[in-house]
Design a protein that fits this description.
Layout (H helix, E strand, L loop, with lengths): L15 H4 L7 H7 L15 H14 L14 E2 L6 E6 L8 E6 L5 H4 L6 E10 L4 E6 L2 E2 L1 E6 L2 E6 L4 E4 L7 E10 L3 H4 L5 H6 L10 E2 L3 E6 L4
């Protein structure tokens, strides 16, 4: 049986309605109470995380779950990208076959160009780097999950803005290829389908989420002290 390397980190995440319990102000709670609901059973107290969060966090700590954060500073020299961002899109079922590639400026207005699109959005660019320096990539906002690739290597997925990645370990001398993939929710694609709950409460189904990178993208360089 193979073992994880000592540097391997485990993490944990929760969804509020699924764990907190008694979440009566949630839309999901209202949907659970509807006649002919698709929910098999109501969430009720769930695992009562709202009242037991201290115990739950202690149990996670005992399971050797550690939070990993990357110290980020706004200081440093901003490095320009070599060219205009290239954007491609694809539905989830088509991933990773990105299509409709075009040049775009950031922040992106994809939700206006493709108001019914849901899926993956990929942005590609290049920059000149030095292996001896420290590089931080900052994405101020995006909708919603973000994965960054540097020279073909995934640097992980983040789901909460602002998105910050330390690139240093994978930067090489000379030209480096960077790609940012953003996964949207299904809201825009499914908005056209009948929504019994919206009809029940008298609301119009109108997508409110954006798509792709909706903030600024900055690349900061820090000189390493010898």
């Amino acid at each position: 049986m193979k073992k994880f390397e000592t540097s391997f980190l485990l993490g944990a995440a929760t969804a509020a309605h699924q764990v907190e319990g008694n979440n009566t102000n949630s839309d999901c709670w209202a949907m659970e109470q509807m006649e002919h609901t698709a929910y098999v059973e109501p969430s009720l107290n769930a695992v009562d995380h709202y009242n037991r969060y201290e115990e739950d966090i202690r149990l996670m700590a005992e399971a050797v779950l550690k939070e990993k954060t990357t110290p980020i500073s706004g200081e440093g020299v901003e490095i320009p990208f070599i060219s205009t961002w290239q954007r491609g899109i694809c539905r989830s079922i088509e991933y990773p076959n990105f299509k409709a590639k075009k040049e775009v400026t950031i922040p992106d207005r994809l939700h206006e160009e493709e108001p019914e699109f849901s899926g993956f959005v990929r942005y590609e660019n290049r920059f000149m780097g030095e292996a001896a320096a420290t590089y931080i990539l900052e994405i101020s906002d995006a909708y919603e999950g973000v994965e960054v690739f540097l020279n073909g290597k995934s640097l992980g997925i983040q789901i909460v803005p602002s998105y910050r990645y330390e690139l240093s370990s994978y930067v090489k001398d000379g030209e480096n290829e960077i790609a940012i993939e953003v996964a949207t929710t299904l809201e825009r694609e499914t908005a056209k389908y009948p929504n019994p709950y919206a009809k029940y409460i008298g609301q119009e189904v109108k997508p409110s989420s954006f798509s792709g990178i909706t903030g600024e993208v900055r690349l900061l360089k820090h000189e390493n002290e010898m």
